Amino acid sequence: MASNTVLDVAGLRMRYDDTDVVNGVTFSATRGEVLVMLGPNGAGKTTTIEILEGFRRRSAGQVEVLGTDPEHGDEAWRARIGVVLQSWRDHAKWRVRELLTHMGGYYARYSTDRVARPWNVDELIELVGLAEHANAKIANLSGGQRRRLDVAIGIVGRPELLFMDEPTAGFDPAARRDFHDLVHRLADLEETTVLLTTHDLDEAEKLADRILILAGGHLIADGSPDALARSVEGEAQVGWSIDGQRFIHPTHTPAEFVHELYEQHGPLVTELEVRRSSLEDTYMTLVKRAESGQEAAPVRTLAEVTR
Fold first, then answer.
1. Could you tell me the residue range of the domain that residue 77 belongs to?
2. 12-61 pLDDT per residue, tens
3. Are 176 and 290 found together in one domain?
4. Is the peptide bond before 118 cis (omega within 30 degrees of 0)?
């Protein structure tokens, strides 16, 4: 595995009885990269991440995480990884600062010249937006504040690789924006590689350097949001009316299509609208294709559309 490669997964497979819940998944990630994993429920996202975290033994395939097979990762390896779960069973009587100080103490022995562990507790509390609640009992925190604490616990050891499962569940819009800033800081300034799952496609588009889409245990897409949109037929939709009749046409080249449209129909064209595909459009198209086994439909000519 190249020194800059943090995750290297090839042919990952997980089988329960006669069912493959993960089948042939292959991808990699480099230092400081933010990957967002999308997919419907049951697609294999959680199983894949649990294998990478070393919590589940795979059935087949090759996996290296920070240069180590996670099935054989020791404590020093685990100290380089952070995990933010959907929920964390904490001790309600602990106070925020004392809990983070306690958790951070486990990482001190794994500090290196390159990565000083743990994170300074007061700096960390400020970073996740809990400065005003540093001495509050965990039982008295709101749901969003407890979620911020979950994130702080996940990064207190200054991880080189951070896994997050639905990290912004329960966040209000302001807290979500702060979290996005935090992820970008971790990736850009700390060179932390981040792999997270979310059902919020708008969030995925804002955060991801690359998006991985799983469906039926298979990796069906791997690329930047823009690259994925361009891979789907109908990157843009052109809508227009002629003599009261409405037309809608998907096209990869909306400017050329509109030019040809006006050349053929001129002033008869009214209510022209061009809409580029969103990540949600792309995601739904790719998942539906994977689930149905359908091939992409060919792009039709203007004459075929207006006949």
1. 5-227
2. 999 998 899 999 999 999 999 999 999 998 899 999 999 999 999 999 99
3. no
4. yes
Q: What is the CATH number of the domain that holds 126?
A: 3.40.50.300
Mean pLDDT of 103-123: 94
- Supply φ then ψ for residue 94, to 5 degrees: -65, 150
Judge residue 121's burial from the number of C-beta atoms within 10 Å of its C-beta, 0-12 exposed, 13-18 middle, 19 or more buried.
buried
Q: Do residues 83 and 196 both lie within one domain?
A: yes
DSSP tag of 53: H
Q: Which amino acid is at 86?
A: Q
Which of 197, 212, 227 corresponds to the end of one domain?
227
Confidence band of 92 (pLDDT split at 50, 70, 90): confident
Helix axis angle, 173-188 relative to 143-155, nearest 10°?
Answer: 10
Rounded distance, CA 41 to CA 69, Å?
Answer: 27
195 band by pLDDT with thresholds 50, 70 and 90: very high
* Banded model confidence at residue 285, pLDDT cuts 50, 70, 90: confident
Boundary residue ending a domain (198, 227, 256): 227
Total Cβ atoms within 10 A of residue 255: 11
The radius of gyration of the chain's CA atoms, rounded to the nearest angstrom, is 23
Residue 174, SS3 per DSSP: helix
Question: Looking at 243-281, which runs of residues are DSSP E strands?
Answer: 245-251, 269-276
Residue recorded with tokens 């069973």:
89
Q: Are residues 151 and 36 in the same domain?
A: yes
- Domain total for the chain? 2
Calpha distance 45→138 (Å, rounded): 30
CA distance 205 to 92: 35
Start-to-end CA distance of the chain, whole Å, equals 55
Report the distance separating Cα 117 and Cα 103, nearest Å: 11
Q: Are 82 and 15 members of one domain?
A: yes
> Residue 121: in which H helix or E strand, if any?
helix 121-127
Q: Are 253 and 183 part of one and the same domain?
A: no
